[in-house]
Amino acid sequence: MKPRIPSLLGALALLACLGAESAQAAPSVGFVYVGAKTDGGYNEAQDAGRLYLQKAVPGVKTNFLENVPENAQVTQAMERMIGAGDTIIFATSYGYLPYALELAKKYPKVTFMHCGGAKLAPNLGTYFADMFEAMYLSGIAAGKAAPDGRIGFVAAHPIPQILQDVNAIELGARTVNPKATVTVVYTGAWNDPSKDVAAVNTLVDQGVSVIGMHVDSPIPVIEAAKKRGVKVIGYHFNDMRFDPKGWLTGGYWNWGPIMAETVKEVEAGTWKSHAVYGNLKSGAARLAPFGPSVDEATRKLILEKEKAIEDGKLDVWAGPIRTQDGKLLVPQGSVLPRAQVDAMNFFVQGVVGSLK
What is the pTM of this model? Predict the structure, then answer.
């Protein structure tokens, strides 16, 4: 009896089926975090985006590495991911950019996405959101809550994104309190709870009654502020559980839709390197819920301003804006150019602190 040989049509059909399965295979996506994915802040917001991606893109596989410092270790981490089959890498921390750029040259078939970077490559794009819009609105709440207008800010590093937040809070606060000031203390670290707490105590000792922040985990700042009896503006993640009474409002990230859209474009072969900007209107940046101490009149005012921003009727960087030393930077009727917003290297009038 002769062995049965599949017909040519059957073989072709089998090959076509296998080809379709290969074409439809969703990519494997790697995420690198500078801190813990349960930090209640920056890294948890990034990981929330990863979890959204898993639900939004059928069949996609994701993995992550956490607590990877901004040095050569991130190169090793990303190469491990590439070696394991990841074809898209989200390098989520600001200091990862130079390492991601070098790896993009080495692995031209891998797509890299960096959070907040200012440089692109053919296979490396960036993503960020205009959180300064939510910080401007939070500044209104802070200006109303601070009896003498004195607001404090705990900052990791003097990078453009942090300067944007500080300036936006000051500009928002001054709309309701012309004497409002924002005093900045740097910790020099994205995640150092002891330095965060020390910064809060320094600010409160100087007389501030509201604290804002831009460090990876807001938890130490919020808890320290609670102990000192001052109000807080949240950041990164929508979570007021650590001090519901002291919470005013804040801003938080919603990275999932941007991440999902990127993966779908790569999968479809339509992705091209560019800088992705989200904002309040797109939903990538969001205003956090109000705390119980924010009165109805202030809530109404902030929500009206939020709608004006989303409708394009209010620009955070519209003049007149003066620099810290009183020099007119943006005259009435003008708006600070986007390039200068992205490369922000100044404080506005009313901010107390250095740029170093």
Answer: 0.90
